[in-house]
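Worked example 3 (structure in, sequence out).
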């Protein structure tokens, strides 16, 4: 993955774990035909998927060309800047976009004031980054880092003009427009990066393509959704600022605890152990993350639009949860089940140390895949304060758990996720089942995928023991995957045919 992939937009969060934010939704069979909400979800996910995959293909193609021209030092220099800018980017948007999408009763004047506030925050973050440039360069012993940080920080000012117009497009369900803008930005940045690399601009290739991409995305967004400015007044914005502050603190806390495992692995266990852990994390999380990130662009807007309709909100939460679980559970658990033959046959024996953490992280990834739906739903129900304190508590407990687990190596760090994460999400599930749905209904949304995944796991474990150890790892892997697919799909079709029928009805009605 290129450095430009790591910093796609400096106005967005830059993190290894996905945000507390997929797949097509599945309507509960007793709810009748799918509603307009399902259409919005499916259409939004479809446009988001098209944009993301177009952008990914363009990024891969650009990376192949650029990486053959640039050096590891070029990427490393920009990567140093990304470490700092990734955290600062969480603060730069200040939760303004989330506030606009969620607080549907904001007046046009209040939105105009938030537009001004967003620019003020962007300018402030730019100034702070300018002040931090030299200390960062001294910390990394890299004087060339100063102009890189200064130039990349321009994106904070440019991107601040985009926050409110982008939120208004989300609020209006303009997912097609947003997808077009994202795709245009990705294609432009990819072509520009190749041109700059061929021109011999070295690490400035990555820097300038990033800044110009943010500028293009901001320009297109403002053109499609121009918003006026107004002088911020505390009396008008007090509610929105309080909401934004709680969202911001929660995001920073989440950034800390969701990335603390890497920090502990690198600092305590060393480079080799960190490499194995990173490899295991990537294998288990990337497939599921690609799936769940599609819904993260759509569900906040959809949930906000129906926040006053308790029945519709419940139905959407359960539908999306079931849809994600149906795909993510077998993918995540399946990767863990075939990890030994996957590593040996595809990646080689040198990655054998990644097998155990991969198996453990697969369990964590399966559970995490459905959890981002809950914070999104609780946010529209006004529980940002609860989410903030929940994030702060996690930011304290998880790093300590990783530190303790590191005495058992990477397996101990991965095991900390498996042991603590289910406990940490219980308050989220409890509050969701109290305010939005019921325990029985929530379990009903997870039951089919859970049962079919258990059957799949038993089938794969059985065939793994039956296959002779003398078989090549790739042949063993192919057999295990085939048995897993047949076991999972066969169970779903045989035991839960009504769910399959509901899924088809949802797609047909949404088209």
């Amino acid at each position: 993955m290129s450095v430009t992939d790591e910093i796609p937009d400096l106005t967005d969060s830059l993190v290894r774990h996905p945000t507390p934010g997929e797949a097509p939704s599945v309507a509960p069979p007793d709810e009748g035909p799918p509603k307009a909400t399902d259409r919005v979800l499916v259409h939004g996910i479809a446009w988001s998927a098209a944009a993301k995959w177009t952008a990914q293909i363009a990024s891969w193609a650009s990376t192949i060309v650029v990486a053959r021209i640039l050096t590891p030092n070029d990427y490393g220099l920009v990567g140093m800047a990304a470490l700092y800018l990734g955290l600062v980017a969480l603060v730069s948007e200040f939760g303004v976009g989330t506030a606009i999408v969620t607080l549907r009763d904001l007046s046009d004047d209040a939105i105009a004031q938030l537009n001004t506030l967003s620019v003020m925050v962007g300018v402030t973050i730019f100034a702070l980054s300018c002040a931090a440039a030299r200390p960062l360069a001294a910390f990394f012993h890299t004087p060339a880092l100063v102009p890189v940080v200064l130039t990349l920080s321009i994106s904070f000012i440019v991107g601040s003009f985009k926050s409110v117009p982008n939120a208004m497009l989300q609020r209006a369900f303009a997912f097609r427009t947003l997808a077009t803008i994202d795709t245009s930005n990705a294609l432009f940045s990819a072509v520009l990066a190749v041109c700059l690399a061929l021109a011999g601009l070295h690490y400035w290739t990555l820097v300038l393509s990033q800044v110009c991409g943010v500028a293009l995305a901001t320009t297109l967004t403002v053109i499609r959704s121009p918003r006026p400015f107004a002088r911020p007044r505390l009396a008008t914005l007090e509610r929105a600022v309080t909401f934004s502050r709680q969202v911001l603190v929660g995001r920073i806390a989440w950034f800390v605890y969701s990335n603390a495992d890497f920090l502990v692995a690198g600092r305590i266990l060393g480079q080799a152990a960190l490499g194995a852990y990173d490899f295991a994390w990537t294998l288990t999380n990337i497939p599921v993350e690609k799936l769940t990130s599609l819904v993260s662009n759509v569900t906040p807007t959809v949930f906000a639009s129906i926040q006053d309709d308790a029945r519709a909100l419940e139905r959407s939460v359960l539908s999306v949860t079931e849809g994600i679980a149906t795909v993510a559970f077998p993918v995540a658990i399946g990767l863990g089940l075939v990890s030994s033959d996957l590593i040996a046959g595809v990646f080689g024996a040198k990655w054998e140390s990644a097998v155990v953490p991969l198996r453990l992280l697969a369990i964590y990834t399966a559970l995490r895949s459905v959890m981002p739906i809950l914070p999104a739903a609780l946010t529209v129900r006004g529980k940002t304060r609860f989410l903030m304190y929940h994030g702060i508590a996690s930011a304290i407990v998880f790093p300590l758990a990783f530190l303790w687990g590191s005495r058992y190596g990477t397996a101990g760090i991965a095991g900390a996720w498996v042991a603590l994460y289910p406990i940490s999400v219980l308050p989220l599930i409890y509050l969701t089942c109290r305010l939005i749905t019921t325990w029985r209904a929530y379990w009903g949304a997870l039951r089919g995928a859970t049962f079919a995944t258990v059957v799949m796991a038993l089938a794969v474990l059985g065939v793994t023991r039956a296959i002779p150890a003398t078989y090549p790892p790739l042949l063993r892997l192919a057999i295990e995957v085939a048995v897993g697919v047949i076991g999972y799909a066969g169970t779903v079709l045989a035991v839960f045919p009504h769910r399959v029928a509901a899924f088809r009805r949802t797609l047909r009605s949404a088209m």
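Notes: The chain has one domain: 3-241+308-350+434-510. Residues 264 and 403 are 6 Å apart (CA to CA).
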